[in-house]
Structures are given as structure tokens and as C-alpha cells.
């Protein structure tokens, strides 16, 4: 049975941020309705077309390809995964698209220091200018080649990050050796100190090293790496990065929801303008809304393919994960259910129109579409809330057999610093 929806009062959900209201006001005051429609569609098109190119590089055998797969939410044996092996399997830069965001490409680079790719010629051979930032991977110590590569990237005015992989293997080895004297945090600090000291010897000043396991991304420093990557990007690229991140902590889910909510007004305004045109009722917007809701499900990893991939990773069934999805949006909305929600949001149309005039006065010349603006805004806003809650429940179910204390520690991180 579908979950009963409670949208609350329109005033509680229709609250456009000041900078978004200013952008919307400028569009409406400076253009005719047709021009505004074109401009809003252009804004949405640019957002969907924004590219992000991430280069993963390092020495042969460091686990670059496995890390590329992990960033894409895939295992090494999944369809479309980057090739992995004990020897260098990448001889030319290979671009791998994100499974749900085709404009996000993660590049598996040839190993540095191999016979065919010496670091002096490496940057030219792999056309480094095309990438937004670089992740330099090592599975043991960082060496001269890593530091030299970092200096060249810095000279190009690009961002780079040091990632130490396979820490799960190091911890397992230490557990066998030390047994009762084993202290995980102490071992991680030793690894991090060793990595930074070697980089400092090679001339790197205050290097930041992130310790990861490509098979257990929810552990160790992956959340810190994500936060650092976000800070290095602005605007649309930052939004695209957030959507591409694996849903492995509550913090990631909350950030995705906040970023997506910042763009609701564009969809609502486009629906408003279309509904204000002759012979274009509110239901004319249904295909666009259905596509938007489907993309939201993919962003939160609630589509069948994403759930299947997650289930195989944590050795459970897709059915058990789907048990945690209780919202109408998560279970799947059809056109009739979307129409019903829109009708509910339009009830009390005069009150909604007054609200629009108060909250978004620049819509005064589009009275016929103002009600649609409120209805679509309510629908998309509440849908994001419900899908995010479903994603958090799926996350907890998926990792219930994992290290619960480590997961909870990451979830206590404050996501608000990026949105103050």
C-alpha cells in the first residue's frame, strides 16, 4: 500500500533562496515569456551537460583500476568495470563513464615509471590538460615519481590528491602479527606518517594523504577525500561531483539532497511558464516531472540496477534492500499518481496564488502558471525528502553486517560547513 503523503502547508516548502530568487527575477523582468522559457531550458541543459573529468594515476600495481571502479560504484567483476590485474593492464588513458551520469568520466591512466611511460614524458603522452583534477595513487610508499608528477601538475595550476590504497590489507597483516596488541587507529597513523614523511623528503610541503580501501569505501579517509574534492570545485561541477559520489554515508545523501533542491525552482518555473501558455494544462508537464523523479531515484541509488550492485557488494539480496524503501516515489510513481499529487498541491488555489505573490512576486504576470509553480515545487521538494530518507534506510540495511561503529562515526560528521 502506498505511503500516505503529508506535504504540510505550502508556506513550509515554497521558500526559494534569496540568490535563486534574484536570478529568477532577472530572467522574468528582462525577457518575454518565450525568451524566459528558452533561458530556463538553457540553464537546465547546461547543468545536465556539465562535464567532470577525473584522472586516477600512480605506479603500476597500486590498484588504480580497482579505485576507478569503486568511484563508479562497481566491483572489479561487474559489467563495464575497468580491467584489473597483477600486471599493468592500462597502456593508454581509458575513460570510464559514471553509470548514471554520462558527463562524468573517470580516467584510468597508464602507470607512471613503467618502461613505456617515464614521468618526464608522461604528461604530454596522456594529454593532462583535459582533466579537472588528479588523484595520485600508491599502495605502499610514495616515491620520487609521485612527487615529480605532483610538481608538474601543480605547475599546470591543477588540483591533485595523494591516495594510499589497500590499507585494509595492511591492517589485516598487522592483526595477524600483533594479535591482542593491535590498535587500528595507531596503525593508520603510522601509515599516514610514513607516507607524508616520504613525500616531504621528495620536496612536497605539507602533503595531505588519504588512506583508503577500494573494497570498503565507507571506512577510513574516503569521506575526508570527498569533502576536500568538493571544496576544490565550484558551481555546476561541484553539483555534478556530489551527484556522482557513492551513497556510502548519511552525509553524502544529505549533501546530494541539498544540492538538488537548489535547482528545483528552475523546473518549477519552467512548468509555470508552460502552464501559463494557451492550451497547455498542468498535465502537459508530466513527462518532464517523471524524468526528474527517475533521475532523483538514480542519484540516490534507489533504481534496480544500483540496488543490485549494492546488494552483491554486501552479500545480501536486492529484495532485503527494497524492503527499506517505503515512499511512493521510491517504490515507483506512474503518471496518474503524479497527477494526483499535483491536484492535491493545487487545492486551495487562491491561497497558493497569494503565497506565490508574497514569496515570488515576480510571477505576478503569470497568474495562470503561478499555481503550477507551487504544485511542482511541493512535489519535487517533498520527493527529495522522501527519497533521501529511503536512501538512508537502505544504507543502514546494507552495512548492518559491516563495522557499525566506524559507519556511525562517519555519519556524525557535520555536513553543514559547506552550506553556511
How would you sum up this structure, described in words?
The protein has 420 residues and is of the alpha/beta class. The chain has two domains: 10-30 and 251-418, no CATH class; 51-245, P-loop containing nucleotide triphosphate hydrolases (Rossmann fold). The protein is built from 20 helices and six strands. It has a six-stranded mixed β-sheet, with helices on both faces.
Task: Give a brief rundown of this model.
With 420 residues, the chain is of the alpha/beta class.
Q: Under CATH, the topology of the largest domain is which?
A: Rossmann fold
Would you identify the CATH H-level superfamily of the largest domain? P-loop containing nucleotide triphosphate hydrolases
Report the helical percentage.
55-70%
Give the name of the CATH architecture of the largest domain: 3-Layer(aba) Sandwich
User: How many beta strands in the DSSP annotation?
Assistant: 6
Q: Output the number of helix runs.
A: 20
**Total tally of structural domains:** 2
Give the overall average pLDDT.
Answer: 75
Gyration radius (Cα, Å) is 24 Å
- Please give the alpha-carbon distance between the first and last residues: 39 Å
Protein structure class: alpha/beta
- Runs in which pLDDT lies below 50 for 5 or more consecutive residues are 1-13, 403-420
> Beta fraction of the residues?
5-15%
Features:
single chain; 420 residues; alpha/beta; Rossmann fold; 2 domains; 6-stranded mixed β-sheet; 20 helices; 55% helix; disordered N terminus
